[in-house]
């Protein structure tokens, strides 16, 4: 057999030292308030204050009626009993020590007044006056501290019974152990329930934050996939134009050829890096041929989108103002997605309503407005995550635009956006090399 080595002395003394610090402390540990409903927040404190009054009164009555003890000592012991219960709301361990001291003083006062068959060192109501204090201890401290508190109380009771108990008195240590064990288990169960509920609320909060963050990342990934297609197209065009340009000039110089070759080489290198970094975002299943090449929608396909929504039972009208002209691919795609998402929200949350889609081409901005009237029937429950507005704001903000959404006075809802015609000029950041050159 192999002999196991004894644990280090530091490990053997760590637990007793920590337990001693928790038993001999007067630190403040207030009783938690009820979180819901708010108007009942202080109910435990009020109940405990009401419990403290009968505990003190009951102590004084038993000293007078059962043991024939009178005088100022009875009033003092009654007040100490009530004080220990009230103190347990704020400093449970200190309240327990005060309760033990009060019990010891009561036992000392009763020692010469105990009749035949009367209990000592406790009065018949003594365990029940200390029970609220032990319950408050069990609600706030770890289980090992609660066990130690009950154990020390019973050990002192047993020591008093052995060495100091009057011959004609009767011990009730069995009933005391039963009462204190019950309140200790009750306090442990309530404490475990409160901690579990707090952990659950914390976990739900973290889960909701994680869900919102994941939805935001998924929306940004989808936008990145679409931007990848747009940028990759333009980089390919630049590369091809740089390759063809020398053949369009008669007797091009070597310097021109070198510059165009450098442009083409840089475009190809940027396109390779772009595909390497963002290519994985094209699809969760990159090998799926159905999702490899899919043309991105533009405002030219708006009528088809509106027809689909009309076919689903929504009354949609469109109005286009200004000179209609082609825009940059990023603006076209963002505008289409915003209108698409706004129509989807109206179809989902406002069944039976009338929807107006307005597009205005300004000198420098594109204005979008999708407004619906109040629904004519109750909307069915939607299993969606409810982050459509978040995606629309991300798209508009990415181009340097703005998006606003909110209810209308007639009970409907409106989504409006302003997108710059040329977002590159609005969002361009001067290159440090350019600054130094100028």
Summarize this structure briefly:
By secondary structure, this protein is α+β, with helices and mostly antiparallel strands. It has helices spanning 9-23, 43-65, 72-87, 92-110, 126-140, 143-163, 173-244, 254-278, 302-311, 329-349, 388-398, 423-427, 432-437, and strands at residues 315-321, 354-361, 365-372, 402-407, 413-420.
Provide a descriptive summary of the structure in words.
The model is unreliable at 1-6, 282-293 and 425-438 (pLDDT under 50). A five-stranded mixed sheet has the order 1-2-3-5-4, with helices on one face. It contains 13 helices and five strands. Helix 10 (329-349) links the parallel strand 1 and strand 2. The chain is elongated. It is of the alpha+beta class.
How do the strands and helices of this protein lay out in sequence?
Blueprint lengths: L8 H15 L19 H23 L6 H16 L4 H19 L15 H15 L2 H21 L9 H72 L9 H25 L23 H10 L3 E7 L7 H21 L4 E8 L3 E8 L15 H11 L3 E6 L5 E8 L2 H5 L4 H6 L1
Parallel strand pairs: 1-2
Antiparallel strand pairs: 2-3, 3-5, 4-5
